[in-house]
Amino acid sequence: MSTPRGTLYLVPVSLGDVPWQHFLPAQAQTVAAGLQHFVVENAKTARAQLKLLDYPGALRDTDIRELPREESPAALDALLAPALAGHDIGLMSEAGCPAVADPGARLVARAHALGIRVVPLVGPSSILLALMASGLNGQSFAFHGYLPVGDAERDARLRALEEESRRQQRTQIFIETPYRNERMLDALLRVCRAETRLCIARELTTAQEWVRSQPVAEWRRAPRPELARRPALFLLLA
To answer: Which residue intervals define the domain Tetrapyrrole methylase in the entry (predicted)?
Structure first.
């Protein structure tokens, strides 16, 4: 008789240093607190997140494994071995929801291939929260991750995204490394058309949360927001 397989739970974590009650339903916290096996990007930050979730177990005795850089089925199968043996596993991201703009998607795909049940738990996604708060088109949108770092390449990409947004009425969403946020805003205000709507969503779900959405022309006249070394998302609709 074959052993029943465990479940891969997708466990959201905080977007900032806030109590879990501020961003996670009690049911999701209860599920996470009952797990003994986790797959994470970084074990050290995962332990900090588990402490934030009031994890009741001894973390030194908890099975916490890091996602490998390689994408071979064998490496992913090793991480999913507890589920194949009948134990539940939690997949955690560095921030927010796992497997969304996140390397954990590879593990989820492999779990499906092996017939392991996948259950997403409710929690914060900075991408969706920013879109919700932007007032931009929520029917058609795309997340592009990080744009090129070089000035010429980044500016060309912004022009292309703005033109695509204008033609398809699609909200374009992207992020930048926090210490380059101000350079990204400079580029947006230099490159984009005055009528293009731009939203900046900073430090979502935290006490420092700040969201503003207005045409580029108004951004050019307004005082600059404090963005240096603060996590933020940029959204535009032409």
So the answer is: 55-217
The rounded distance, in Å, linking the Cα atoms of 114 and 87 is 14
Q: Are 193 and 118 in contact (CB under 8 A)?
A: no
* Contact present, 37 and 92 (Cβ < 8 Å): no
Q: Which residues of the chain have pLDDT under 70?
A: 1
Query: pLDDT for 26-61, tens place per residue?
Result: 999 999 999 999 999 999 999 999 999 999 989 999
C-alpha–C-alpha distance, residues 172 and 237, integer Å: 7
Q: What domains, with CATH codes, occur in the chain?
A: 7-120 (3.40.1010.10), 126-237 (3.30.950.10)
- Residue 109's SS3 state is helix
Q: Can you tell me the distance from the alpha carbon of 4 to that of 126, in angstroms, rounded to the nearest whole number?
A: 35
Helix axes 181-191, 151-168, angle to 10 degrees: 60
Q: Which residues contact 6 (CB under 8 A, 6 or more apart)?
A: 82, 83, 84, 85, 86, 87, 88, 89, 116
Q: Per DSSP, what are the bridge partners of residue 8?
A: 89, 118
Q: Report yes or no on whether pTM surpasses 0.85.
A: yes
Q: Tokens 């999701």 identify what position?
A: 28
Q: Are 209 and 18 within 8 A, CB to CB? A: no
What pairs with residue 7 in β-bridges?
117
Strand duo 7-11 + 63-66: pairing: unpaired
Q: Name the one residue in this structure whose structure tokens are 């999913």.
A: 80
